[in-house]
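#dry-run=false #mode=assembly
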Amino acid sequence: MLRTPSSTTRAAGLAGVMIVASLVLTACGSSGSRGDGGAMQADDSHTATVTITAANGCQIPTTSYPAGALTFKIANQDATAVSEVELISGERIVGEKENLPPGFSGTFSVDVEGGTYSLYCPGAKQENTAITVTGSAPSLTGGSVAALLKSGTDDYAKYVTLQAGYLLSSAKALRSAIASGDLASAQAAYEKARPFYEKIEPVAESFTIGKNNLDSDIDARAGDVPAARWEGFHPIEKALFQDKSLEGLARLAAGLVVNVEKLQKLTNGLTYQAYELANGAQDLLDEVATSKITGEEERYSHIDLLDFQANDEGAEQAFAELQSALTTIDPQLTATIASRFTSLDALVDTYRTGSNPSGFDYYGVLTQIDKRKLAAAVKAVQEPLSQVASKVAKA
Amino acid sequence: MPDRERIPLQPSRRQFVGGSLGAAGALVAGGASGVAIGRATDGPKASAAAKQIPFYGEHQAGIATPAQDRLAFAAFDLTTTDRTAVEVLLGTWAAAAARMTAGELIGPIDTAPQAPPIDTGEALGLGPAALTVTVGFGSSMFDDRFGLGKRRPTALGDIPPLPRDALRPEISNGDIGVQACSNDPQVAFHVIRNFARLARGTAIIRWSQLGFGRTSSTSTDQQTPRNLMGFKDGTNDIKVQDTADLDDYVWVAGETDQPWMRGGSYLVSRRIRMFIESWDTDFLSDQERVFGRFKTSGAPLTGKHEFDPVELGAKKPDGTPVISLNAHIRLAGPASHGGQKILRRGYSFTDGIDPNTGLLDAGLFFIAYQKDPRKQFVPIQQLLGSRDNLNEYIQHTSSALFAVPRGLSGAGDWWGKDLLR
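#status=ok
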């Protein structure tokens, strides 16, 4: 039911990449011809024409519309400071269109109930215009954005609980493997445990207060803390993969299990704000960009690509929990992030291999070109993702 | 919550682990608006900061503009295959450049507390500082990704391998070239940084180069600067006041096979490493023989003052030429190329030390503008590369050619609009 872009105007190119807010899909059955371009539609009471100029800002000749479907057709003539238009109800973004530099035009569609809205053109000379909507829409979808976000954050809490549980059982397995005295099985156990931590690392980091630092206790690398206080995964990694010795590891493995138990206890029953999921996802991708692509995280075992994938998965999970709500707020941004995650996943998948227990190529095989491609794919997700927190925080 | 307080999941950095992260998150937002005009408050500095070069016009600024002191250059590769995304990128860049060249932010810094500022902020209060932003398209953009093959100008052929080239492909060419010049290095860098950010997901930086000092004078008001060899090179450069030269040698006109290139020009860049440690051990008269000029005065060896004519036919008593047959001034000058000239707009650079030798990795980031590189840069460099006395002390390590379209008519116009639409 997406509209076919008009082929008669230059705007068609932009319309081609737009996704109409999903709310429209469930609205009135008569919407088939709505917004199919052409000047005739401009007088339609369900179409709003917005012109942005440097001199006058964001101009909309009609400011009152009947409830129901409403399509905004926007053209930026020459306002260099403006690149997007939002429809806002209270603090909430109801719909918006981005990528509107001067010389470009585009549309977005929403379903609106009766009430007062604001057309917000950030950076324009006239930034806000009040829009009045009268009457009541025939049918609006049930799930409010707030309800969708609530269910998303609840689901994310379950995900964290699940991963913390896996982390604990795999840490115990590592402890047993070390106790058994078999280096190879201890190495394999190390590789199995790592991803569970990497998927939820920002949650552990959120318990970092002064000396009480679970992230450091579990995941500090050599030099992050004084040598005497170095514990957690990485001194075990060094012993297993560089020194190839199990000496003294029983104490470290036991300590790791204790700290992971602490983490599990702390995360159990925790609730999250939607913006925290967005920031957590961003944090995971920062981890990828700063320590995995550089090979600094797993400097002895070289399983950085396994961690990379785990960080990516954790970030994508957090985003996925926000996706249904975010789609109603900003379908275009949501689609952009989703497609960039897909590209990133596809790129990471090219490094999967059966030739070692981690399931991924070791860091050493990466060429400089590989690293740059991976970094660019991560940054391509991060830039639009950085917009998400503010959007869901307002919802 | 059990025994510990929990802080919200804020983006953080790994190296802060173990530090006092607790309060950091709250302090991240909302700081920058109070940053005042610290660097641009007094006297000549203030007027330099306020100097504004018009962004819109028949030709792009940054070519026939008196050469500013600093350069930030970057070549981008498009990662998208969506032509619309390319159009939006160029439109977004054009709007951002219009604002930055006027000394304005590309968008507000004080946005929602939960959203990153739109402008990165480091140029706030620095003024326009004579900023120009010049954009061109590399030949790779005309491959089959965007269906532009038939729009490729024949003058945008790849530069053929030239004598003594030691080019590194990873710092050569690219789909789009961006030259940002300003009298303030941070203003110039701000352009590249924000362009890269606006391009995220659509294009990536392939390579970039900073230039710390201009080596060309493109205006009769400017003194000829010295290159890192200590010589004035470029005394006879095309000057912005000489509109006949600009029309004859720089601006593309009706002769092009691609109407979208009219009013444009072709940018050639060459990163020329200088072996300055070797140069510094060469004796003075040999240095002067290499260039064909006196080091201190900048005068040709046949004259006393910088702008004295270069007399290529002058002979010493023993019958040998005063200006050596392979002197740089002789081989680079128009007389050796049927009168052809180029507009040079290069910058000195240093990129630290060569990791293999510990020697300074420094030299000239050569930029030249011209009507047709096949008739100008290429034959000039063919001759220089094979015979120039300077070759003993230099090496070309990167090369790029960009078709720089006409200037933008106003807001709503963007680079390549007639190419892409």
